[in-house]
TrEMBL record:
<dbReference type="InterPro" id="IPR006311">
    <property type="entry name" value="TAT_signal"/>
</dbReference>
<dbReference type="InterPro" id="IPR008929">
    <property type="entry name" value="Chondroitin_lyas"/>
</dbReference>
<feature type="signal peptide">
    <location>
        <begin position="1"/>
        <end position="34"/>
    </location>
</feature>
<dbReference type="InterPro" id="IPR004103">
    <property type="entry name" value="Lyase_8_C"/>
</dbReference>
<dbReference type="InterPro" id="IPR011013">
    <property type="entry name" value="Gal_mutarotase_sf_dom"/>
</dbReference>
<dbReference type="InterPro" id="IPR011071">
    <property type="entry name" value="Lyase_8-like_C"/>
</dbReference>
<dbReference type="InterPro" id="IPR003159">
    <property type="entry name" value="Lyase_8_central_dom"/>
</dbReference>
<dbReference type="Pfam" id="PF02884">
    <property type="entry name" value="Lyase_8_C"/>
</dbReference>
<feature type="active site">
    <location>
        <position position="276"/>
    </location>
</feature>
<feature type="domain" description="Polysaccharide lyase family 8 C-terminal">
    <location>
        <begin position="702"/>
        <end position="765"/>
    </location>
</feature>
<dbReference type="GO" id="GO:0005975">
    <property type="term" value="P:carbohydrate metabolic process"/>
</dbReference>
<dbReference type="InterPro" id="IPR038970">
    <property type="entry name" value="Lyase_8"/>
</dbReference>
<dbReference type="InterPro" id="IPR014718">
    <property type="entry name" value="GH-type_carb-bd"/>
</dbReference>
<dbReference type="GO" id="GO:0005576">
    <property type="term" value="C:extracellular region"/>
</dbReference>
<dbReference type="GO" id="GO:0030246">
    <property type="term" value="F:carbohydrate binding"/>
</dbReference>
<protein>
    <submittedName>
        <fullName>Hyaluronate lyase</fullName>
    </submittedName>
</protein>
<dbReference type="Pfam" id="PF08124">
    <property type="entry name" value="Lyase_8_N"/>
</dbReference>
Length: 814
């Protein structure tokens, strides 16, 4: 039976998500994998089903728009294609002149493969107007031949961005050949696969050498391409090499995707994920790794090359441990998306949909208890993402849309509720805080975790994204960070940051990427009872002209922000941005400033000395503290930009059409060249104006100290004290022997003290706590390495050597 005959069966009749996934990934409808080892031909069928959905999508009304989009893209791409005999390129706007010498030509070659893939999808997806069109097939084959003869062949020089030669092009080559397997001549298929082997012979290594090992998503991408090229030309060695690269068999497991790491790229025990050595990247590279492994595991399941690594549970656990904490109603928080925030076609919900698709693809073969939990998570995310729909979305593959549709329609799957917890991820300097009506996280940087990533003409103005940018998510404006926020926001006024206004050049220039490092070791914090948290950052800006100590306190219904020791040089004004909230033009809400209801016109500003309330969003209360700012400026600003300006990448660049947003901007000025200045304010997300004014009159929190050495906050209603010490110091009865984050919580007859060292510079911390020692004479529980030194005063020793910034707790009883 021909592959095309198998892939066009109507498989959607199967009931249940596991059944649909099994139908998409095996040669017959049903759950799980084929009962007998799959042949190479059956594996091609599986891969093709992953790409096309494997069914006639015109029979599924919910997919009509997605199918129409495929038809339209195929028509437009085919119509613009140069099919003349003397052509040197397939499309006039992306000439191949200089291939092998020019970075631009390399980018254009990659775009050629992308467009041929789009044409191949139109040809292969059942139900399109072009499905099975022999002329379209002939033109695709002719185009592949031109690239094989002139642009992508063994022995060529890999000029420009290595990624296109070794990952982007091989992935597109194997996918096109999978879609067109029945019609592409064997010699052409062989020559294209030979080129893929030439540029990426071994998925474990960069290029043709063995000096730079691939890690994370790059290793997964190469593994998938390697396995597929082996399947396409019946090369069992390549299939095995692709599978084994996931576990890094050749390297003894050193760079295995299934191995937890303690440094460098990969998954950490606390749920962190690092890529490119320094950046929290689960939202993009992590999703790519997860999706790629899911596709490989399912594609070769039941065959002689099945992935049997017993450590693969590491990746299964990562769904809930790494990814889920940073998903807000189907969106992946930008704090772990790196330079992808600048990609117009890939906003937060698109990466969220990619994660959901990977989770649904992995669920059937994961087994219990994973299967049920994965399906519940995915259904909850899909249902709460009310302003976007994964089913039928033009950025999604039909197969993933089918899986999403099926889980939504499956009454047996009960959606997981939105999370309500607080978690610290010490290995990536991130804390995430979920409350019933809002969520928050902050991007900090250290001498371990970089400020932001730029490169390949992407994220050109991301200078301050890791300098304390504070994200607040709610359900009144889900699209806050996906609706033209990044091309229009003032990059010098990102929420939560303290910056000087010295003009800066673009952060990107051509091929290659870079992650500007931070200088100081202190960034991170701790969580308490999975309910509250504190994060601190010893901030020294990119050219060391501005220093500040910054703390964030995450409470039940409040985020409290403290700044101290703000000192600048160089003659530039220094600002802290309390908020910079985006709205559609003309749609900024009412603002109450110090109890007065005002309607600010675009360009207007007012000064607040006590509080600001932004209707439908949040309240802000200025708090008294040492060196704290006494007022803030509230403005409505209209800003116009374009996506091309922040990302002109070859295959990710945005449009140059202008986009405009209005902003409610709240800033506190520290003046020019400030010395030891500070700020203190509360954010009350989802609060009404009366609650804002109550906290202005009588704040529910007390700033105990706010200096360059320590920042401490008391929450009397919860018998809770949180804080950061940036050096050995004493304040308000506390004495810390070195830099640390601390939390003291009294709960009835128990007292819990938690300590972490975000700087990772202390082998131990000795902490004196201002409580009556005789009341706390017994130990109810204690983490290893925590001891009581004395009870009068209460002094504790926390052994933190090799602890990598993770927290330890001791609980005392009366």
């Amino acid at each position: 039976m021909a592959i095309s005959d198998i892939s066009r069966r109507t498989l959607f009749r199967a009931a249940g998500s596991a059944a649909v996934a099994g139908a998409l990934l095996s040669s017959a409808a049903g759950t799980g994998f084929a009962a007998t080892p799959a042949s190479m031909t059956e594996l091609i069928v599986r891969r093709r089903a992953i790409l096309t959905g494997g069914i006639d999508a015109s029979a599924v009304p919910e997919l009509s728009a997605q199918l129409a989009q495929i038809v339209a893209k195929t028509s437009a791409t085919w119509e613009s294609m140069d099919t003349s005999a003397g052509r040197t390129s397939l499309w006039a706007d992306i000439p191949l002149t200089g291939i092998g010498q020019s970075a631009n030509a390399t980018s254009n070659m990659a775009l050629h493969f992308n467009r041929l893939f789009d044409l191949a999808m139109g040809y292969a997806v059942p139900g399109t107007a072009q499905a099975g069109d022999p002329q379209l097939a002939a033109d695709i084959i002719s185009g592949l031949q031109l690239l094989s003869d002139t642009a992508y062949k063994p022995g060529m020089k890999a000029a420009g961005n290595w990624w296109f030669w070794e990952i982007g092009n091989p992935r597109k080559v194997v996918d096109i050949l999978t879609l067109m397997y029945d019609v592409v001549p064997a010699p052409l298929r062989t020559s294209l696969l030979a080129a893929a082997r030439w540029f990426a012979p071994n998925p474990g290594w960069r290029g043709r050498a063995t000096s730079l090992a691939e890690t994370g998503a790059n290793r997964v991408d190469k593994s998938l391409a390697c396995a597929m090229r082996g399947i396409l030309d019946a090369n069992a060695g390549d299939v095995a090499m692709g599978r084994d690269a996931l576990s890094d068999v050749a390297g003894g497991g050193k760079n295995s995707l299934f191995k937890l790491v303690t440094s460098g790229d990969g998954f950490y025990a606390d749920g962190s994920f690092i890529q490119h050595g320094q950046l929290p990247y689960a939202g993009t590279y992590g999703v790519v790794a997860m999706a790629g492994v899911a596709e490989i595991i399912n594609m070769v399941g039941g065959s002689s090359w099945e992935v049997t690594d017993p450590a693969r549970e590491t990746l299964l656990d990562a769904v809930e441990n790494t990814f889920a904490p940073f998903v807000w109603d189907g969106r992946i928080m930008d704090t772990i998306r790196g330079r992808a925030v600048s990609r117009q076609a890939e906003p937060d919900y698109v990466d969220g949909f990619a994660l959901i698709g990977a989770v649904l693809l992995m669920a059937p073969g994961a087994g219990e208890p994973y299967t049920s939990r994965f399906l519940a998570l995915a259904k909850g995310w899909l249902q709460r993402c009310t302003d976007q729909a994964m089913v039928g979305h033009p950025t999604q593959r039909l197969a993933r849309s089918l899986l999403a549709l099926d889980v939504l329609n499956n009454a047996a799957v009960v959606a997981a509720p939105a999370p309500v917890y607080t978690r610290m991820f010490a290995d990536q300097d991130r804390l995430v805080h979920h409350r019933p009506a809002w969520g928050s996280t902050v991007s900090t940087s250290s001498n371990r975790v970089g400020r932001y990533e730029w490169g390949n003409d992407e994220n050109n103005f991301g200078w301050y994204q890791g300098d304390g940018m504070t994200y607040i998510y709610n359900r009144t404006d889900r699209s806050q960070f996906s609706s033209d926020f990044w091309p229009t926001v003032d990059p010098y006024r990102l929420p939560g940051t303290t910056v000087n206004l010295t003009p800066r050049p673009t952060g990107s220039s051509g091929a290659g990427t870079g992650i500007p490092g931070a200088f100081q070791p202190f960034a991170g914090g701790l969580s308490v009872d999975a309910r509250w948290g504190v994060v601190g950052m010893d901030h020294l800006n990119y050219n060391k002209s501005l220093a500040a100590k910054k703390s964030w306190f995450f409470l039940d219904d409040t985020l409290v922000c403290l700044g101290a020791g703000i000192t600048g040089t160089g003659g530039a004004e220094v600002l802290t941005t309390l908020e910079n909230r985006s709205y559609a033009t003309g749609q900024t809400p009412d603002v109450r400033i110090d109890h007065t209801n005002v309607r600010l016109a675009v360009g207007a500003s007012r000064t607040a000395s006590g509080s600001v309330h932004v209707e439908g969003y949040a309240g802000f209360v200025l708090l008294p503290s040492e060196n704290g700012t006494g007022e803030a400026t509230v403005s409505v600003v209209r800003r116009t930009g374009n996506w091309r300006a922040i990302n002109s990448g070859a295959d990710t660049g945005g449009k140059d059409a202008p986009v405009t947003q209005d902003y409610v901007t709240i800033t506190a000025s520290h003046g020019t060249d400030p010395v030891n200045q500070g700020y203190a304010y509360m954010v009350l997300p989802a609060a009404d104006h009366s609650d804002t004014f109550k906290n202005q009159a009588k704040p529910r929190v007390t700033v105990l100290v706010n200096t360059k050495d320590s920042q401490l906050l008391s929450v009397p209603g919860d018998s809770l004290t949180l804080g950061n010490f940036y050096a050995a110091s004493s304040a308000k009865g506390f004495t810390a022997s070195g830099p640390c984050s601390v939390a003291v919580h009294e709960d009835g007859r128990k007292l819990s003290i938690t300590v972490a060292d975000p700087s990772r510079t202390q082998a131990s911390i000795r902490l004196t706590v201002p409580v009556t020692g005789k009341e706390w004479s017994g130990i109810a529980a204690a983490d290893p390495g925590v001891t009581v030194v004395s009870t009068k005063p209460l002094t504790l020793e926390f052994s933190l050597a090799g602890n990598h910034g993770h927290q330890k707790t001791i609980t005392l009883k009366r």
